[in-house]
Every structure is written in C-alpha cells, then in structure tokens.
Amino acid sequence: MAKDPEARTFMWGVWGLNHCALSLLKLWAIYDDDEKLLAFLTCTAAMTFIYLVRERKAISRAGGDVDGFVVVCGLQSVSLAYLAFM
Questions:
Q1: How far apart, in Å, are the Cα atoms of 37 and each of 53, 54, 77, 78?
Q2: Residue segments in the chain with a per-residue pLDDT below the cut of 70
Q3: CA-closest candidate to residue 83, choices 48, 49, 47, 32
Q4: CA–CA separation, 29 vs 54, rounded Å?
Q5: pLDDT per residue as tens digits for the range 37-54
Q6: Which of 12, 63, 77, 80 has the fewest Cβ atoms within 10 angstroms?
Q7: What pLDDT, on a 0 to 100 scale, did the predictor assign at position 2?
Q8: What's the pTM?
Q9: Across the chain, which distance is largest between two alpha carbons, in Å?
Q10: For position 39, what pLDDT does the model report?
C-alpha cells in the first residue's frame, strides 16, 4: 500500500482516470450496440470482479473494503454479458 500521501493521490488519480475511460467506453458500446466492444468490456468487468473477489480477504486484513466494488463489477459483468451475448 502506498504510504506517502502524494503516492496515494497519484494512484487514486490514475485509477479514477481509468475508471472514467472504461465507463465512457461502456456507454459508447451500449449506445452504438457494438457487440464486439461489449464482449471485450464484459471480459474486463469479469476479470476485475474475479480479481476483487480473490483479493477481498487480503484487502480486508489490510484495513480496506472493496465490497461495493465487488457488487458493482459483478452487476456490470452480468449486464454487459446480457447486452453482448443475448
């Protein structure tokens, strides 16, 4: 974990920028009904969900809480899969 406040600020900024970019891609894919992009975004959401579930206990032991992210990524995975493959 980043101990230096500047490092934490930087990491949150990078994470936030990535999150915003992926969110815009999801909106764009839904708006354009782009099945290939929806399939790709389904995979990224599912991989993120699996990673969060796998590391949840370790993060909890370190004092973190990712339960909200687990729920959001799980719901995104299901909804994107529905749009991509149904």
A1: 24, 26, 13, 15
A2: 1-2
A3: 32
A4: 28
A5: 999 999 999 999 999 999
A6: 63
A7: 62
A8: 0.81
A9: 46
A10: 96
Q: Quickly tell me which residue has 């993120």 as its tokens.
A: 48
pLDDT at 48: 94
Helix count (H) and strand count (E) of the chain?
Answer: 3, 0
CB 66 within 8 A of CB 52: yes
DSSP string, the chain: ---SHHHHHHHHHHHHHHHHHHHHHHHHHHHHT-HHHHHHHHHHHHHHHHHHHHHHHHHHHTT---HHHHHHHHHHHHHHHHHHH-
b/e sequence 33-57, b meaning 16+ C-beta within 10 Å: ebeebbeebbebbbebbeebeeebe
d(CA 77, CA 85): 12
81 in Cβ contact with 56 (< 8 Å): no
Alpha-carbon Rg for the chain, nearest whole angstrom, is 15
